[in-house]
Amino acid sequence: xxxxxxxxxxxxxxxxxxxxxxxxxxxxxxxxxxxxxxxxxxxxxxxxxxxxxxxxxxxxxxxxxxxxxxxxxxxxxxxxxxxxxxxxxxxxxxxxxxxxxxxxxxxxxxxxxxxxxxxxxxxxxxxxxxxxxxxxxxxxxxxxxxxxxxxxxxxxxxxxxxxxxxxxxxxxxxxxxxxxxxxxxxxxxxxxxxxxxxxxxxxxxxxxxxxxxxxxxxxxxxxxxxxxxxxxxxxxxxxxxxxxxxxxxxxxxxxxxxxxxxxxxxxxxxxxxxxxxxxxxxxxxxxxxxxxxxxxxxxxxxxxxxxxxxxxxxxxxxxxxxxxxxxxxxxxxxxxxxxxxxxxxxxxxxxxxxxxxxxxxxxxxxxxxxxxxxxxxxxxxxxxxxxxxxxxxxxxxxxxxxxxxxxxxxxxxxxxxxxxxxxxxxxxxxxxxxxxxxxxxxxxxxxxxxxxxxxxxxxxxxxxxxxxxxxxxxxxxxxxxxxxxxxxxxxxxxxxxxxxxxxxxxxxxxxxxxxxxxxxxxxxxxxxxxxxxxxxxxxxxxxxxxxxxxxxxxxxxxxxxxxxxxxxxxxxxxxxxxxxxxxxxxxxxxxxxxxxxxxxxxxxxxxxxxxxxxxxxxxxxxxxxxxxxxxxxxxxxxxxxxxxxxxxxxxxxxxxxxxxxxxxxxxxxxxxxxxxxxxxxxxxxxxxxxxxxxxxxxxxxxxxxxxxxxxxxxxxxxxxxxxxxxxxxxxxxxxxxxxxxxxxxxxxxxxxxxxxxxxxxxxxxxxxxxxxxxxxxxxxxxxxxxxxxxxxxxxxxxxxxxxxxxxxxxxxxxxxxxxxxxxxxxxxxxxxxxxxxxxxxxxxxxxxxxxxxxxxxxxxxxxxxxxxxxxxxxxxxxxxxxxxxxxxxxxxxxxxxxxxxxxxxxxxxxxxxxxxxxxxxxxxxxxxxxxxxxxxxxxxxxxxxxxxxxxxxxxxxxxxxxxxxxxxxxxxxxxxxxxxxxxxxxxxxxxxxxxxxxxxxxxxxxxxxxxxxxxxxxxxxxxxxxxxxxxxxxxxxxxxxxxxxxxxxxxxxxxxxxxxxxxxxxxxxxxxxxxxxxxxxxxxxxxxxxxxxxxxxxxxxxxxxxxxxxxxxxxxxxxxxxxxxxxxxxxxxxxxxxxxxxxxxxxxxxxxxxxxxxxxxxxxxxxxxxxxxxxxxxxxxxxxxxxxxxxxxxxxxxxxxxxxxxxxxxxxxxxxxxxxxxxxxxxxxxxxxxxxxxxxxxxxxxxxxxxxxxxxxxxxxxxxxxxxxxxxxxxxxxxxxxxxxxxxxxxxxxxxxxxxxxxxxxxxxxxxxxxxxxxxxxxxxxxxxxxxxxxxxxxxxxxxxxxxxxxxxxxxxxxxxxxxxxxxxxxxxxxxxxxxxxxxxxxxxxxxxxxxxxxxxxxxxxxxxxxxxxxxxxxxxxxxxxxxxxxxxxx
Length: 1435
Prior knowledge:
The protein is an alpha+beta fold. About 15% of the residues lie in helices and about 35% in strands. The protein is extended and about 130 Å long. About 15% of the residues have low confidence.
């Protein structure tokens, strides 16, 4: 056995999975170096091996594809090493091995499996191997980038068992998180994995996916003195070799051999496939390459062979000579010859290097026009089929300088060969002629020489004889006829070109009239063929591929590469973002005393009783809650009555002047689960009778309902709402969703001022305490902070360009606590009144795999005109044609008479009395008819029957004509129903619903099926990674196929189906668009029926499932020619979604709102992935309104993420509502959070003012159609004074002025809200947004003072002021902190040049710090004369 045969027999590798091999995009290999140091730990203690004489350990490395559960490549084995055990140290085995490999399969599923094996020898000498454990080294990250570990040693954890466990179907990705893989405690493999770029120089000598070590010896790589030749590989010198005068002889003759080969192929394919088309040999190819015993040094060259007889005719140059019949041709000229010389530049003086020959035939079922073409020319429009015939291998001796003549025997059959293909062998004796039986293989003959000899140039002059090298082919000019390129091919199987299903489904420009052979390939476009030829696993290709190598195309490519694009700078946000931390959920620390709590509980709130008429059990908000779904499902009390009690409200004064008066009444808005939004009635804040010595600022006020006449309801205080959530309300399987909603979500409540209709603030409460966990009922009392967010603009706001399109102003946020809401939540369990048949599990229609054989499709029998009527099973009761078709019944005379009689009878039988009279009349007529003339009765009876027969005959003719007219339409409708499958989805906003449709090709021929949906919300998943993500998410166990769909431009996806094949088509339904129509602000609930608000009452109606919420989508699967293969009708039941957070913005009308909202830390979001320390997922956002621009950008590692919004506001007082879905997975499967936004568009008024100085302006009020009693309210009453201040009359269709006086306390840009409210009906008449641009006056004097902190008495101080004018003046004093500074006199009068002492009273402060207090001295017109600054330090 030669050196090449020895190495070739030792290196057998398993190819990658056929799906991975077929659909993997071509890319460069990635080289790795794995250093294996040692193994330590309990893995080395093997107690299961008994009767062992000696034991050593070995490491084995294998590549594994987790997606397809497939080991591939070749397992590398280390040298066996003994166990070293030292006292006090864990057992250790030292290896110090370095392994190298490279792979082009850059996919996160590709891992390196490290196995520890104990190799024992028993006392009888027999070996025994035992797997001790294995570890997993991922080679690529989730983004298909190489997972290069750090240079320091890494301890690889080991799993129990053997790597064969990875082949089990339950072992799914990700492998490291699979519960069936158990880590081995205290056992590690010290190893290091890193990239090794120097290995790229030896790629052509190393097989892919095969780990090798330095001691193995790689042919073509020089040995290294340092001992590791692959650390920095040095290659052996190559020698150029030439093969000339190559010819192949097939015995007994070429004609007999090819004739026998064609007969076998026809018998194998069958005449039904060929359909009478003759099978012919289109081309004969020879693949030549240099093989190292491990792999090909370079991709084999492909040359075209021609029969020797054709070469002889071409040399004669006679075009008039006709060749004799093929059957009369002599044995001479029966060889296949190569008219060109082959250059082999990769030959090395090494015994393992050999030349490999592979003879391949190209067949075609040619049409009549194709038969006229030459047998050596292949038509691009003819489908072709390639088949290897013979192969040979020869190891040359490069020491001899002279050329040698070589004759090699050809080999065939199913033996292993370097090209890894099945090769044709001589058929059995029963199928062969006597001549073919004599010789089973042919021979190849050629003249071999090395590059040291001088070779004359080829002078044949034929452009088709020479196969240029790739470098020369790239520079060829396409002006001349293209020469056949040297097709590169590394063979893996004999199924023709390694094209994916999507490439097989490409429709050629001119399809052959006859179907191709099986397996065959339709002619493809040049682009697809060029791409296929570049794939490494391309088995072969159509000959004479056309390429555009013209100079113009090359110049155009160079020009396009030189186009210089502007480079985007790193993104820098221009917003000061809003922190989206949400409202504080749950109860805050209780600030009420025990006495105050006792008085609050004794105020007479209604007591809640459970189903046993006992008081409901109270739980504390601080008690931990564990959600146990099994315990909730096992509860017999499946009816959940959710009770919300609004008990009291504690005012937290923002201004001492309004601490006792604001707010006087309030109402609340919220939305629970998928019930409609709720607006409570207006509730009055009433102080308890026995509030005692409680501080007025912190005492809770009871919430009392207000009657229609404005008086207080003297019944039980508080306001109570009940939600009955029972199985009759919920859909099948929704009980689990509702319980998960209670466990994970918070209820967001907006509190409003009942008089001014201004927003007080928002609160949030977690609902996890409503989980009863087997208890009869639970109740929890919360004290929630009502938090108000105020957005301030820091830039100067002008009426011109401040809110123009494209301008962005930084936003500041100030949060303040406006009050505390006392809220009680309860969940009372009840027994179901009747046992429903609904299963607590998901309904059958929620199955992830939809099949046309599951009973949801097909024609169930009955009339063709009653396809839409449901039938029980496959039996349908026969009915009259006129009973099921109203159009036909209207045309029949007999039906008209019956209808007329029935109508008359129904009219006469209206009462019981008339019915009795008719019965008596009928009995009398019957008696008379019996006593009458029998002959006259008989004649009348015969005449009546004759008329009936005429009418029936006329009706039958009409029915026959009607049936003929609608027969075709009815049959088509019936056939359509027979192939229609129905499926129902329960979808919510922004959540993707995934399912697969099992599509079967019922025909005996292949089809390319086009998938079309009439609604873009239901789409086909064409990305394999997205498909795999949804399969893992839904635990759908069906086959996964990469690159299954063919996509072309913007056309519908196509899939290639083989005969009788069934594939699973993945679908995804996801809806983002919702009704975001504008609305008007509403007042409290009890007044929505009043004037101007009648339409608002409709929104408070209970949500009921209706047909209008069901969406019907049709998906058609059409084959070639528009023939329908299957139909899928999807019914989408839309359900209201859950809102996690609500934002409310006030903005000037008809302008753009631009906001930046900062996301909270990603690990705090519900549903965020866990187990990823230091890695933040990318955030994606989608909006329910397509006209709103929303996006998020990653700032960098560790940086926060912001969501940017740009919303166009409408006219005042419009309110725009929209939703924003936030995702942390790139496939947008399920939103992590859903935010609700309200944009209030208000009339804008720009005001430029000075702090401490009064600025006056007036608004023009226009009356409505009726007279109203109105009052104006301001969000900042201490800074904005109104005139008239109280209630005034707004005449109908009249005009009146509202005077404003603004004295701002703080400099900067701010918003002040102004509402005009109807005090009788509590309706909003008008609303304004005052945009203040305030500047601070110049400070003329500054003072410093130190005061004690922590309460106590205040401090009195004095400052002097001199009148700079010569005349007597009146001055007024103001301050920006009236809570900290009071004046002895608010005004004073002083003569010209005189000095006045101003008395100051500083209030005590509870905390230490510094405060700057401004003192404004204004004149009689309230213009600022001077400003003093007092810096107060509290210690």
